[in-house]
Please model this.
Amino acid sequence: MKRYGGNARAIAALVREAEVHRDVYVDPEIFELEMEHLFPNSWVYVGHASQLAKPGDFITANIGRQPVMASRHTDGSIHVFYNRCPHKGVKIASEPCGTTGKFFRCPYHAWSFKTDGSLLAIPLKKGYEGTGFGDTQANEGLSKVRNVVIYRDFIFARLSVSGVSFEDYFGESLSTIDNMVDRSPEGKLAVQATPIRYMHTCNWKMLVENQTDTCHPMVAHESSAGTAVKVWKREQGDSTETPMAVQLYGPFMSPYEFYEQSGIRIWPNGHGHTGVANSIHSNYSDIPGYLDQMVAAYGEQRAHEILGEVRHNTVYFPNIMVKGAVQILRNFIPIAVDKTLVESWVYRLVGAPDKLYERALMYNRFINAPTSIVGHDDLEMYERAQEGLKSNGNQWVNLRRLYDGHEEQDVTAVINGTSERQMRNQFHAWAKFITMDMDKRIEAAE
Model:
């Protein structure tokens, strides 16, 4: 039995100023409405241009329930299509990535398409003569996703025909991507390794909000990172050099005061980041030669500005997190109301010392892998929350920390680093984008 349907008012009522109803995490109907409305109305990350190094390269992804694919055409341009043959609907590509050569070929009836999506050939095409096939959508080839923006090689798409423009959707938040790319002396990133992928038994939004939750590290990670730090202190002896591994996981045990002073910046449309004045990435050892390369590329002042920006986690609503200081992007891919596939991608800073890439890969393994030092702690908390939210004792999730009684929405602000305002910001955006086209239907009916 459906309780919400397309009732925009009922869905928006699930989000209060400082609380959200448990249904946003546990109700399968709400999840399906997210797939149908929220994701198509949002700008969603598809992939990185470096994954499409040469003509014929392709990647696949999903935007909500919609399978899409991106490919590099012979002229170097990148195109994004719906991943289905216009004949019988068979998926053209089922692999995460690959090289198709000069054309795509449907595995069912061998319809073929150029790498820009246009129809190339149909076996026994004479069978369509006089049928009016030339006037059908199928004759146009693979259906294109019309709203695509490639920003500094990051590919984003919006499925809805109308909606918020890319520039208005992201605004100043793109400064995190700018900073990550600018950390390369050549101003370029490259994907050279497959991501770490593993399934989480929880709702996707739990992972997103956890990225700016600074009140859990010293608690949830005490037995893992905390123990590792204690072992290092016991065993370090006369060593004055802190190993890279300890530099990576040690800051997770920073006290509340550290996070309070570090700050959080919020932006409109659900975006925001931790680590404004300081972050857990601030005190890594210098990599020999790197600063010299950056100064040569940007000049001394600009080089120090770039490297001095050490934001912790930047959330790009709805479902990615970018960690510029260690060149990582995490994609929280919704599978079911209680199942989320996480992809953790590492980018190489083109032209920078190999040691930086090594550090990023190590961070990904130590923090984001199922066998990591700290990642499994978070997974345990997500699973407990997914189970606990089935309790009828309280149907509302409290997000009231440092709430002042009223908050202006869709603003840019810097706030206390332990505030839950970015989570409130996230859910304001959730209500806005999931009901966006529902509101239009209501207005038309009225």
In short: The CA atoms of residues 194 and 420 lie 33 Å apart. The first strand starts at residue 19 and ends at 21.
